[in-house]
Predict the structure.
Amino acid sequence: MAPGVSGLRPEVTGCRKCAPALGGPGSCAAAADGEAAMRLVWRLGDAAALLLLLAAHLVAAFDPLSVGIAIGAASALTGYLSYRDLYCRFAECCREEQPLNASALKLDLKEKLFGQHLATEVILKALSGFKNNKNPKKPLTLSLHGWAGTGKNFASQIVAENLHPKGLKSNFVHLFVSTLHFPHEQKIKLYQEQLQKWIRGNVSACASSVFIFDEMDKLHPGIIDAIKPFLDYYEQVDGVSYCRAIFIFLSNAGGDLITKTALDFWRAGRKREDIQLKDLEPVLSVGVFNNKHSGLWRSGLIDRNLIDYFIPFLPLEYRHVKMCVRAEMRARGAAVDEDIVTRVAEEMTFFPKDEKIYSDKGCKTVQSRLDFH
């Protein structure tokens, strides 16, 4: 249930300069349309005021009361049309000071993310604390780890929708996919320069921008360190503050470490829900830092402690797969048929070989398998 790819947007400070993004669509169309709409609102306001004042002038010799009414109407209309709220009715606005609805986020995570008590708890805590802080010292940086199909993409989608109503389709949410946007190892320096421009431009346009980096385990090492200054404890970098932005990394790296811990708990007869962040976060940060197949390999982001939370996504059990099937059936507007739920879940393959506890693909193939029933 991975989210769709958002168009990359290069430097768009005021969106005066626009250039097509590497491997992506045109960059500033939405912002340019927004500026045009705003200019139109201003022009309409000026024109309305001029017409009403002209009418007031024509009737001035006959009816003083009409003059007052005309001037009042002109002032009211001009003021009304100039308000930012009117513009925001027709175009998406960056509402930087809008508080997070923690209750709505909690409900979304509970109803849509299955088997991930740790991820749900940490994401809710991290976002609530960050959004309630009127003066954060650095951007919020989250690194989500776990095998494919455990819900990392889905969680980032939920976060995006709770921060910006249009979610992944928002002009203020940006999704980068390593194999799509940064495929060539020999172009690392170019990617670093472009990444800095894209982020600087978009944060200049909206301080509360969200940046999601998918497939971090496939990102060429060194690329992500280009954004280290933006994630650090600086009030501003070249006149731009990044302290209200949010960065989310998604990676399969560390999935083996997470599974080992979960399996150890299971074999010891301990509940899955007993696993705490302290049982996994230190192991994850060290493991990912030393993993040559990770985009965070020996990264300054880890070395400088710039990643606020390493969030583990546990492998999913049979019961969680059934939850995914039910949710997908409801999303399609179909009645939940428990016979079909069971058949789809039983078609999945599980590991380890002897115990067969965890789905090796999580819930990733639930949609396609449900199509056959």
Notes: The first strand starts at residue 140 and ends at 145. DSSP finds 15 helices and seven strands in the chain. The beta strands are 140-145, 173-177, 210-214, 246-251, 309-312, 350-351, 358-359. The two ends are 19 Å apart (CA to CA).
